[in-house]
Design brief:
mainly alpha, 3 helical TM bundles of succinate and fumarate reductases, 77% helix
C-alpha cells in the first residue's frame, strides 16, 4: 500500500479566507489588549508613587515608541470593537451568507482603521 500522498499537509499550503484571518486576529488583539491594560495599571501605579515617578512616566509616555504602542493599542481596541459589533449582527441572525461575511470582514478592517486614525487625530 504505497501511496505518494502526504501524511499531513503543512500550514503553508493553506490560504485562509479573510474571515479566518480576522477571526485569528480578533483573538490576538484580545491578548494584546489584556497585556496592554496590565501595562497601563503598572504605569498608573508608578504615577501614584510621587512627583519624580510622575515626571519619569510623563517623559516615557511622550516618547516615540510609546506613541507607536498607543497607536497599536488604539487599533487593537477599535478592531476588537468592530468585531464585537459584527458578532452582535450574528446574534440577531444577520449576515451569514458567504458574500456578506467577506464584505463585512472588509468593512470591519476599514472601519477599525478609520476609527483609529480619527482617534489619533483627536488625541495627538
Amino acid at each position: 500500500m504505497s501511496h505518494n500522498r502526504p501524511i499531513s499537509p503543512h500550514l503553508q499550503i493553506y490560504k485562509l479566507p479573510i474571515t479566518g484571518i480576522i477571526s485569528i486576529s480578533h483573538r490576538l488583539t484580545g491578548v494584546f489588549l489584556i497585556i496592554a491594560l496590565i501595562g497601563l495599571v503598572v504605569i498608573l501605579i508608578q504615577i501614584k508613587n510621587g512627583m519624580l515617578s510622575y515626571l519619569e512616566m510623563q517623559n516615557m509616555l511622550h516618547s516615540v515608541p510609546m506613541k507607536i504602542m498607543l497607536g497599536g493599542f488604539i487599533y487593537a481596541l477599535m478592531f476588537h470593537l468592530c468585531h464585537g459589533v459584527r458578532h452582535l449582527f450574528w446574534d440577531i441572525g444577520k449576515s451569514f451568507s458567504r458574500e456578506t461575511l467577506t464584505r463585512y470582514a472588509q468593512w470591519e478592517l476599514f472601519a477599525s482603521f478609520s476609527l483609529t486614525i480619527l482617534t489619533l487625530l483627536v488625541l495627538l
